[in-house]
Amino acid sequence: xxxxxxxxxxxxxxxxxxxxxxxxxxxxxxxxxxxxxxxxxxxxxxxxxxxxxxxxxxxxxxxxxxxxxxxxxxxxxxxxxxxxxxxxxxxxxxxxxxxxxxxxxxxxxxxxxxxxxxxxxxxxxxxxxxxxxxxxxxxxxxxxxxxxxxxxxxxxxxxxxxxxxxxxxxxxxxxxxxxxxxxxxxxxxxxxxxxxxxxxxxxxxxxxxxxxxxxxxxxxxxxxxxxxxxxxxxxxxxxxxxxxxxxxxxxxxxxxxxxxxxxxx
Length: 265
Ligand SMILES: NC(=O)c1ccc[n+]([C@@H]2O[C@H](COP(=O)([O-])OP(=O)(O)OC[C@H]3O[C@@H](n4cnc5c(N)ncnc54)[C@H](OP(=O)(O)O)[C@@H]3O)[C@@H](O)[C@H]2O)c1
Known about the structure:
Blueprint: E1 67-70, H1 74-85, E2 90-93, H2 102-108, E3 112-114, H3 117-121, E4 125-128, H4 135-142, E5 151-154, H5 174-181, E6 186-190, H6 196-199, E7 204-205, E8 208-216, H7 219-232, E9 235-238, H8 242-248, E10 262-263
Parallel strand pairs: 1-2, 1-4, 2-3, 4-5, 5-6, 8-9
Antiparallel strand pairs: 6-8, 7-8, 8-10
The chain binds NADP nicotinamide-adenine-dinucleotide phosphate.
The site of NADP nicotinamide-adenine-dinucleotide phosphate (NAP) has 32 residues, from helix 1 and helix 4.
């Protein structure tokens, strides 16, 4: 259970060799059949969203805006806990609706707000912490007409229960496929290489700061997510474009995906 669920203690993370726990068990609990998710563009208009904003400047000026997290499972809660610990506001959703997240919110305080998928998707930074095979229905539930102005953070890995067999990506990086589901969004692949217990633990370890990898085709979006990660305490390492960096951090198969690294001071 992520530490923040128990009231935001900040345990020390252990560093060391060995594959991530998520390499097998616990990657997802989704047993749905199906392969690459589809996108159903929704009809909901983005009420209240600023028109004509400079997409390159959705940066610290909107820092006060909550971070939207779709998926409140192991990864969603781990990330929410670290964001909350860093002073961020979080809007979080799952498949069962906000009422099912009330107990979680009661434990974490008012900085975490249970919401619908659509509300979580209405933030400038939207994390898709859901099983790979659910992505299509999640995007449909988000009901977003225009993903522009959003940074979509993709921590998904293209596999899941019951067999944990990797999806056939046709030679593409998984996040390139996810980017196709949210046209116009600036997609940043991040947080997919660490198991939830490590992700949810204090990134400031005795040996140094926990390293997280990110990649994406929009340098300023990468930097925006990197700054957020640095505020949390992670040593954010930008690997460049999805075709290159995304492949390095791809799980399974990427050479960086099984590493739990800390950056020495
Ligand atoms: N676990 C790991 O070791 C690990 C590590 C790194 C990356 N990842 C990746 O991170 C992603 C999430 O993994 P996880 O372990 O957090 O999975 P999880 O514990 O099974 O949680 C999945 C979450 O997604 C939500 N969800 C499913 N379908 C949805 C829908 N249609 N609309 C809204 N929410 C929906 C679920 O809602 P309910 O709670 O209502 O069911 C649940 O909160 C996966 O893509 C996985 O590959 C996992």
